[in-house]
Description:
The structure holds 2 protein chains of 2 kinds. Chain A is an all-alpha fold.
Amino acid sequence: MSSQLSRLLTGPAAALAAFCLAFSLIATAAEPLEFNDPAMEVRYQKLTEELRCLVCQNQNLADSDAPLAQDLRQEIFEMLQAGRTDAEIKTFLVDRYGDFVLYRPAFEGNTLFLWLLPSLLLVIGLIVLIVNVRRRSRLPAPAEEESRD
Amino acid sequence: MIARLLPFLLFLALGALLAVGLTIADRKTELPSPLIGKPMPEFSLPVLGQPDVIVTRAELVGQPFLLNVWASWCVTCRVEHPVIEALAQSGQLPVIGLNYRDEEGDALAWLEHFGNPYSLTLADTSGRTAIDFGVYAAPESFLVDSRGQIVFKQIGALTPEVIEKEILPLLATESQR
């Protein structure tokens, strides 16, 4: 086991691991923030991961180094310190930037289709599967499988 | 028959969905502002170059104006500058500048170099007021009516077409009220 591991950790795999590690260190773009309360820090992490950076729209606030993302992280930090709830902080951002800022949009009338489509597709897939399996089970077994036995 | 055609129809539906997605992909980076139709947010900002002179929201409400978010580091703002200048010179709509996340010296030098079309420029050095306006890039422009409501937002550079087709008609309906 250990020899396998050491073999894995040399050569290209190690290079790849080092590469990924280096990038993950760069990617955590965070100001040194002083949290008195560890629970608040957890909430901060969770919020900045669930909120979208509006400048580079496929990154969340936690990962983005854009100036606006820094401002918004600071804003979220201050609101947490001021005792605002997670819901209040999200509402603050939605009021200014719209639903798009949420990576996890609210379950509402205009997002119903977005939320239900995956389940709907699953149900359709299951129906197609069941119909197919039933139909095949009614067919006589193919001749070639019999001869293979 | 239908069962035979089903995969093909699904393929067509998927193709149509992707085609629609591709055509809206370009526009999708411009987010509709939730502030349209809402009152302009409260603020209290110093005038650019005059840190002691503070202007609040209440002082600006009363006549329609265009609030143009710009910065000396913003390249597109240079492209937009002649359009803003032409609008301001036409006298149809005063343009108020919101200098966004900028250094005072850089901002003043920029106005000196390109010309100052703004009847007033407010300095939002921290970017805090811009957050209340939902600004996420410069340039952005907000049309504010005489009651202090935001009636239109342009993300990116203003063009003569946008002024002609969007802003001036909105201004005309405003003056009829």
